[in-house]
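Sorry, I am new here, but would you mind making up a protein's amino acid sequence and the tokens describing how it folds?
***
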Amino acid sequence: MTFALVWVLGILAAPAAGAAQEETLRVGSKRFTESYVLAEIMAQQAQAAGVKTQVRQGLGNTAIVYEALRSGQIDVYAEYSGTIALEIAKHAQGSDVAALNQALAHEGLAVGVPLGFNDGYALAMRRAQAEELGIRTLSDLARHPSLRFGLSNEFIGRGDGWPGLAKRYSLQAKPQGLDHGLAYEAVTQKHIDVMDIYTTDAKIDHLGLLVLEDDQAYFPRYDALLLYRQELPTQKPVAWAALQKLQGRISEEAMIGMNAQAELNGQSFAEIAKQFLAGGAPQAVADTSGDAKAGGQPSFGARLWSRLVAPDLWRLTAQHLALVLISVGVAALIAVPAGILLFPHARSRALALGAAGVLQTIPSLALLAVLIAWFGVIGRLPALVALTAYSILPILSNTCAGLAEVSPGLRSAGSALGMTRPQRMRWVELPIAMPTVIAGIRTACAIGIGTATIAAFIGAGGLGERIVTGLALNDSALMMAGALPAAALALLSELVFELWERYLRRRRVRR
């Protein structure tokens, strides 16, 4: 039944995907500030030429966004030459455009339109601490093995990241994996000493960090350019012509300014892109070190309220509810009949519950990554399958538990009245077991509402989009603006199920 469900969902998704491919330029982004901004710039540049666009923000790390491009889920996204050469096309004979195109040709992909700036990897630490310890270069770090490294999880696993860097500079530290946005908070609070940064990050100077010199030239250049599907210029020539006008337009200073507008001034990515394309220079960064009265910045409560009631609230809430209701509904259609069929067979029932329990123990992000590789798509399909898998165990186990509550005497009475087994199940056993079954569906909904926030990491939408973006910007107000509505949905779900159970109890008493 699960495989049939997956097949049906895939068939239903295919026409919509095909229509979008014909009519819309689909722009993707990774899950950090600069990628969000560049995606909006590309989309608005195409829109100005009359092209309909779809922006799929915050899809995840390089592997996920690259898989989305390779499988045709998006048409283009902003990538970096060093990342393509060392992480994507590992056999590339250089990081220039010609070498990268030669290495990517067999994948049906191409690179082009250099945007005009280099955004490289580097390590940074608090300036005061670095001066106290006499650290200026990466080679100096080897003399201080007690320093605490907090590095992004992607950097720790990249081919051009920590493993090669540690080997080149003989670094013995065991880094702690952190989200890139949270690492800035960790280093300023002195929870870590060294972090990886992008050289166009806005918070480097703002937080008083020192970028350590790569004295052995480990890191290559990371020139920003467009990574796209080879057929984009021929299939969507108007969009491609518009994107080519971005070549060389973004300087490193402009990119740092736009990142600052998002991370320090709290401007939306769309507004930043609009200002840039209109020819406006990035505005001066406001001082966020003071409180609302001293620095002129809004309080946390004001920022939370403005983000909470933003226009995307109802759209994200509807997407979140759709993910939960569809997945729990499908899980109920699978688990309740399965529980009825398996209940008389103790061994088969135990095996099924064990298998469902194993699914429940798989970390959600790991399961999503496996499903992306399996289906070759990102977005709602793998998210729905994962949420359905997590919802099966509570419904299946409660269905079996509810049927076990039916006394043998009642079963015998039904048989004595001439009922067949299906009739007895319908009129005697299921009505008695129904409150327990509903409790299982109630639990599945609670699990689904919480887990559905993770779906935003693969572009499936929902209230998790705010949490993911808040992580990228280290914006606690934005994260809370996603978490609070999700919590409200969970409370509303509990209220609905409580009222439903009371109704069933009153109806049962009347009967």
